[in-house]
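Two folds, back to back.
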Amino acid sequence: MFSPTHLYYLMSLLCNERCSKCSHWTFTDHGLQVPLIAVIDAIHDLEKAQELCIVGGEPLVYKNRVLNLLEGIADTSVRTILITNGVACTPQFIDRVRDFNLHIIFSLDTIDPTFWKYVRGTDSYDRVMKHFHYAVNQLAPEQLSVQSVLAQETVEHVQAVGAFCRELNRFHSVQNYIQQGFEGEWTELPESLSAPVPTDRCQAAGRNLSIMPDGSVLTCFQQPLMHGCDQPLGRLGEASIISMLSSVYSSNVLNCMKTCNLPCKKLKCNQ
């Protein structure tokens, strides 16, 4: 049985923005969400878990669910990372979560109000920047950072975001745009112009575990792209997480991951 240390929870594909880099917001059938207690119990059962990354869509569309999850795992040593577009990351929310073992990542691909409308598909610039500056004033550097997506369309803008973050003493990470991962309208950069990738192999094998909105469990979100690995390891609420990780199928999937060379190895979650 492998013991994952990095957990990823895709809360929903539902989103409150219309970003041109991403296609998640175009999905209209969001189905049922797994009971939250099943997610909380699974995290408690994974003794070596170190980090839980909550992603979307936009997780804060389900703000109460995020809060209940943070409260449900507060008795563990698991550090939660929340990736948000900032629209619903209000001062009230920041005040509620500032004392949790939580790191918030604001997704900012530009700080140009005009280009923002192309990036986000909405006129949310003032709201998001107001929320971000409040977070900067209330949270320590280790509690708040920024991530940008680098594509042909955003090179100069990502550089400007980096300079902006340095002025505020906030860490800035850069994710290369990958069509297979984002499925949006942007254009991948050639490798010579892309942000450096730490290694040429996928680091998710034996480390990552991903939970889908309906409770389906995968090693990584791209697991179904591997030959013979199209089925989830199981589903929370129907089987225990330990039984899933102990199965022969799980071992076979893990072996496939060790030699996987799909382009998604360049995604931050797989580095």
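---
second:
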Amino acid sequence: MCIYKISNKGKYGNLDSTLISYGPCQTPTLGFCVERHDTIKTFQPEPFWLIQVSVQATEFRKLVLEWERVRLFDREVASTFHQKIKDCKQAKVTGISQKEKVKQRPQALNTVELMRVASSGLGMSPHSAMIIAERLYTQGYISYPRTETTHYPENFDIIGVLKQFRQSPDFGADVRDVLSQGSIHPRKGQDVGDHPPITPMTLASREAFDHDSWRLYDYIVRHFIGTVSPDCKYLVTRIDFDVGHESFSVSGKKLLDAGFTRTMHWQALSPDEHMPDLKLNQMIPINEVKLIERLTSPPDYLTESELITLMEKHGIGTDASIPVHINNISQRNYVTVGSGRKLIPTALGISLVHGYRRIDPQLVLPTMRSAVEEQLNLIAKGRGNYDEILHHALEIFRLKFIYFVQHIESMDHLFEDTFSTLSQSGRNFSRCGACRRFMKLVASKPARLHCPNCDATYSLPAGGSFKLFNELKCPLDDFELLLWVGGPNGKGYPFCPYCYVYPPFREMKKGSGCNQCTHPSCAYGLNATGVASCGECPNGILVLDPTSGPKWQLACNQCQVVIKICEDANKLSVANSTCPECDARQMIVEYRPEKTKLANGLTKIKDACIFCSPELSDLVEKRYASHAKSKRGGRGRGRGRGRGRGRAKPKDKMAQLAAYFV
């Protein structure tokens, strides 16, 4: 749901986003990220002091002891304790305790845990991880990947699934260990009544996948094996020391049974955590006693994994929508993804959340959405009336929307403090047809031209670069023409900024360039540069790109077809005559003597068809096209309307050309 949406293209120059929006799930998701950002920026580091003692436990093993007081924020007090023990030469062992502990094997895998691990452990975004998981599911390698359940069904054949992996070079050894135990009892999880947990369905090898698909499949298989493996058991040893009547301690772990960490190796214990064999009352030589000063540090930015945990905790989104919300705040430039998949809010994201808080703090809090979820659960349990709850929810959002609109100036003030207005942004670029003064090119997304004098803004084509087109002007509105160059083929076309936004003819769509303009006298319109119908799309016209020389090309004004023609020609133009065979517009081609590619050293040829004339047909090269499609009717000569007498012939010529080059 989106209750607030504004197009920003006409207001701020350095605001790099095409859309500002509010959503009851999306905005609290962003709110978590901005809240952490605010905590980091307002954090004031505070100095503290601790005493660190290093002892020589054995000939080859040093131990660094932890102070029982942990740390002190008063330097004088900490220094007093340091003076008290700094000259001590030995530490006395005052206590040794051991306790066996268990690291539980994981529960069955659900979607949220899959996304968490994919982000924190595999470096994949939740959105990408779910795309890969869905592909693995459709290919039959894993079960349905969207589920909240963490408990295997009673009739689930765990043994049968395990046996498929018994001979695997990657998982076989671990699977055989599990099967040799006899009875298998996975941890009890939660069955929410949707789909079973995510499990592997069949054995596959690395060669069957790309890199990321294999890593996700490998994790799913290992997680499944881990859920039916024993718990990891280890022994925790704590040794207490007395140094000058100050208490210190050190602890370590000794592995007893690796259990599930054999297959989920990233959760294995560190091999050097076990303690040396010391005796009670033993005196241990002290190597060093140090007073260390440190500063408190702020928390780091939220990772995607931590954000998923917060969203799940507060009831924001579902297993299906959580990756969508995280992807949205990234795609809309509210956050950027830093190293370690950390989510760093942008100036836009920060301003949005702060603006929402100024107007109505509840818009950012997760409580609004969780309250709606609670009411929906009442409907699902048969304890709530659908119509009443729907009316109540709609009324709340209606009132909040009205209040928000009435106080929108609070948001505007924040944006004005953060971003530059269009009149303050950009650089002088081309002249406005209305006032004859320079308009400014604002290059940030979305690109646009802004006339400070007229206070008018004109959107520009996306995904390319712009330059002035020989200071030529549109015959309709006197705006200076611009040239757009972009796309995979280096396609380019001139366009009028005003006509691009306000098409002058009914058949022109918004966002059209001169290559689609039917003005009869424009030297760069469709009537002057159109050559033939495109054989690859139903409505396209092949248009001469007047800026492409000396590597001249025809480009379709609807699709990506590009035809290179008459390379190194000095001049190339479209004649008024048409080809009697195919009804395409004929060409006038002129070469310099030293670069001519015409037969018999000719330097100029007039009224020749690039498809039919033998003088030019060898100078045509199709540069980019999809496979030739089934024949369909052309539209004549490319003047914006078809002529019946040659309707089928251009279609056939282009189909033959496509078949030849493809």
